[in-house]
From TrEMBL, chain A:
Keyword field contains Transmembrane: no
The UniProt record lists the keyword Disulfide bond: no
Organism of derivation: Marinomonas aquimarina
InterPro entries named in the record: MinE, MinE_sf
GO molecular function: identical protein binding
Function per UniProt: Prevents the cell division inhibition by proteins MinC and MinD at internal division sites while permitting inhibition at polar sites. This ensures cell division at the proper site by restricting the formation of a division septum at the midpoint of the long axis of the cell.
Taxonomy of the source species: Bacteria, Pseudomonadati, Pseudomonadota, Gammaproteobacteria, Oceanospirillales
Protein name: Cell division topological specificity factor
GO biological process, one term: regulation of division septum assembly
Keywords: Cell cycle, Cell division
Alphabetized NCBIfam families for the sequence: minE, PRK00296.1
Automatic annotation (TrEMBL), chain B:
GO-annotated molecular function: ATP binding; ATP hydrolysis activity
Family annotation (InterPro entries): CobQ/CobB/MinD/ParA_Nub-bd_dom (IPR002586), MinD (IPR010223), MinD_FleN (IPR025501), P-loop_NTPase (IPR027417), ParA/MinD_ATPase (IPR050625)
Provenance organism: Marinomonas aquimarina
Keyword presence, rRNA-binding: no
Residues reported in the UniProt entry to bind ATP: K11, G12, G13, V14, G15, K16, T17, T18
GO biological process: division septum assembly; negative regulation of cell division
Protein's name in the database: Septum site-determining protein MinD
Amino acid sequence: MGIFDYFKSKSEPSSASVAKDRLQIIVAHERSRRTQPDYLEQMQQEIIAVIRKYVQIESDDVQIQLENTDDCSVLELNVTIPEKS
Amino acid sequence: MAKIIVVTSGKGGVGKTTSSAAIGTGLAMKGHKTVLIDFDVGLRNLDLIMGCERRVVYDFVNVINKEATLSQALIKDKRTKDLYILPASQTRDKDALTPEGVEEVLNELSKDFEYIVCDSPAGIERGAQMALYFADVAIVTTNPEVSSVRDSDRILGILQSKSRRAEQGLSPIEEHLLVTRYNPERVSEGEMLSVADVEEILAIPLLGVIPESEAVLKASNQGTPVILDTQAVAGQAYADAVERLLGEQRPLRFTDVQKKGFFKRLLGG
């Protein structure tokens, strides 16, 4: 860092911290996908298609998660239906 | 029983072969009988890095296909005692490595050697899967850069689900992080992920940090593993990593910015 660098704007986050934030998000996303069975993705697509017959939703509005406990698995489905405008 | 170590990364060009050569040589220098196996079928390079490319007669695939015996294919390193190299084949048949064949060769080597270091190819195809499948220990080689970190995480997922230890419900593969091509100056400028950042994202214990060093290219030009360059920071950092792999405690070195003179700092550069 030389004397001229002090004139540069300091408000921008460093590129390394941007890299870290992006990585944390994508890695968490890919890890959650890794533990779920392969059919889950397709099931999610089909559920979205069924809901879309009635309400217009985005793909992001359906969250699907499979949680395994000792003796059973719980499939959690969260659908956010947009408010009527 | 030998300990099987895989040097892996997912992404190419991060320093797997350089690290395999350095760590394998380091283990042999500490008196442990070690064999280095190149799993990169079709693109063998460990022989060049180890400087034995002109001594290759038979290779890994010849041994699997019983066209040669192990003792015919193993190349004894000329510089380091207790070190052998099993080169990869240059065949284009990507299915040349069969799980049964690889297992048989590893079992045979296990009788004679203390450490088997498997140099994995890049990617997640057959060769990479075979290199990690039988491993007891994984050294995940990562550059402080987004695509390398992401691919390393992917490889960690494969180690935890598709390895022999995972499939047979044995104790999991011991995972180690090796950060290579580290540039402390760029980290301090906020232009490069720090070791702490990479450790936090991948959440596995740190084996070592190898600084970006001109000595690495020089060593590969000459066909000598960089760990033999005891003057170079990269060589010393690999020696530290080997000590840690053997259970010794070593403080991290070469991860802080070298102090510059007043004028150099004032003018930058």
